[in-house]
TrEMBL record:
Domain Sushi: 13-77, 78-137
InterPro entries (alphabetical): SEZ6_CSMD_C4BPB_Regulators (IPR051277), Sushi/SCR/CCP_sf (IPR035976), Sushi_SCR_CCP_dom (IPR000436)
Organism per entry: Crypturellus undulatus
Keywords of the record: Disulfide bond, Repeat, Signal, Sushi
Keyword Signal: yes
Pfam family, any one: Sushi
Record's protein name: CR2 protein
Cysteine-cysteine disulfides: 15-58, 79-122, 108-135
PANTHER family referenced in this protein's UniProt entry, alphabetically: PROTEIN CBR-CLEC-78
Length: 138
């Protein structure tokens, strides 16, 4: 069996309140103190995706002061699955969400011709750009 490792944390070591993040919240928002060993977990609001680790930890490196283990995550705008078009397919990978700036390119089924711009992108508002291309003919 692996040896049991114990980390002794001197009493009284605390971290400052964890940073708030735009478009998200953390589990420590109702706490007054953050003693060493505390864990704070972040979640993003609807329409946003977390980038980075979800939790930070109050640690001590010198045995006297507390500090958070790393920066909090960020919450970035996301788009949902790219819309389908009749008689065509898009290049998007199977994914639930896409970060802003993602570009998706459409291709028409054989015998159909693309009308409009063949690409759309995930906008800063978390929506796919419009108009969608169309595939006509057949």
């Amino acid at each position: 069996a692996a040896p049991l490792a114990l980390t002794l944390i001197p009493a009284g070591i605390q971290c400052s309140p964890p940073p708030d993040i735009p478009h998200g919240r953390h589990t420590g928002r109702f706490m007054d103190t953050f003693p060493a060993g505390s864990v704070v977990t972040y979640t993003c609001n609807s329409g946003y995706a977390r980038v980075g680790e979800s939790s930070i930890y109050c640690v001590t490196k010198d045995g006297r002061t507390g500090a958070w283990s790393g920066p909090p995550p960020q919450c970035e705008v996301k788009c949902l699955q790219a819309p389908n078009i009749a008689n065509g397919q898009h290049s998007a990978q199977a994914s639930d969400t896409f970060p802003r700036g993602t570009m998706v390119t459409y291709h028409c089924t054989d015998g159909y011709t693309m009308v409009g711009n063949s690409s759309i992108n995930c906008t800063d508002a978390g929506r796919w750009s419009r108009p969608l291309p169309r595939c006509e003919g057949g």
